[in-house]
Amino acid sequence: MTSSFGKRPFGHHGMSRTIVAFLLMILGSLVAAASFAAAGAVEGPQACGQCGMDRTVFAQSRMLISYTDGTTVGVCSLHCAAAELKQNRGKHVKALMVADYPTKELTDAKSAVWVVGGSKQGVMTSVAKWAFAKEEDAGKFVQEYGGKLTSFEHAMKTAEGEASGASGTKHGGHSHTGHGMGPGSQMLFNPGFGDDIYHTHPAGMWMVTYKFMHMNMDGLRDGTTNVDQDSVGFKRPTPYTYMMIPTSMTMDMHMLMLMYGVTDRFTLMTMANYQSNKMEMLMDMGPKKPITREDPMRTEGLGDIELRGIYKINEHLAGSLGLSLPAGSISETVIMMKKEYRAPYDMQLGSGSYDLKPAITYNGLSDDALWNWGAQAMYTWHTAKNRNDWSFGDSLKVSGWLQRALGPATTWLRLAYNNTERITGQDAEIEKLIHPVTGMGAPTPDADPRNYGGQRLDGALGASYQRGPFSLGVEGGLPVYQKLNGLQLKTTWFLNVGLQMMF
Ligand SMILES: [Cu+2]
Question: Ligand 1 centre from 323 Cα, in Å?
């Protein structure tokens, strides 16, 4: 893997080995996660009959209700069992089973020993309720976490009290964003969003997300005006004197993200990516020579690594701080006119600097948990110039979204605004492209640090589907407004696909 950090030759062998290693890493963690989940597999149904949550994730508190009419309903917790039984007063219960906390095996709920309260985070409630087949195990639990030993009847009364709004919890006990649970949880953890929405997980919960992000750029633009390729040329009267005329660019990114709930309020996240960039271009050698199509510029390799701590301020707000480590190369090279040059800034794989990324996230969920809305603001601060003496412009990104749950699926509309400053400083190697020292250079707009940054507003539509601990999301979008600093390729559309698993 280390080979991808340094300056690499143009052969694709080293690159394909890195990409294979990276994909194996993704596959490995997904397989590990899947087998972990399979080990704790629970009986059907997978979704809680009341709140729709995945019962595999709540194997330790799940319940199974069998009615005398032959129907069976699975729920995630006593809280949802109380709601379920209340709705079906006319039906007779044949069997009421609950998970034994230590073994996750089903046991008779009425003969189990229950513990109400304690410091261990409860499911769907602020007052936790756990069941134990053996009184001895219940005693051990109380020693560690506190809480009171009680009977099924008492635990049930407490749950019913919550359901009718008599005690403790808000919105009929659904502690929405509070514990990041509930039917809205899929929306809060949505894998399809192009921007990561920072959230917390309950203590001990893991989340793995793989995302593929594609961005397409086509045609040049300066400010808010499109610039056709005839306006760019070399040694002839054109508004933009460049020899290289970029015509389109694609950026592909494979991203792997891992999250872990350290406490119920604090979650750690780490993110790595592998990217490949390709830019198509024309070459104009001067007035008497034909314009030719050049071989596209390509760069590929690991990008920067991000570490982030996310803190749950209250039910709706999460504050977080990310630190981006300069793992991506800033010394990638390309061949132009049979000569090797350091690639322009937009073809490099990292920022080369330690970047701080504070963010604040607001999340709201309707009482019926069918609608979710929210907004997030994130600032990227490049703390210093990198070792090649430049840094990307700082940026502000604000996004807002509205989601609607449709059974196991959700669909959403998202807006994202980004304002990025110009590059500061310059890389003397890249500068050789634009101001040839030797008389041989290949002036291209993206070698000029002034042709960077601007404002963009994107609109995106997406959908996701959840099954058990997995969810899959797809989002597509395009800019509705873009104002670019200087001459740049403009963004035309993007597509994100995300696969996620919680355990
Ligand atoms: Cu997560």
Answer: 17
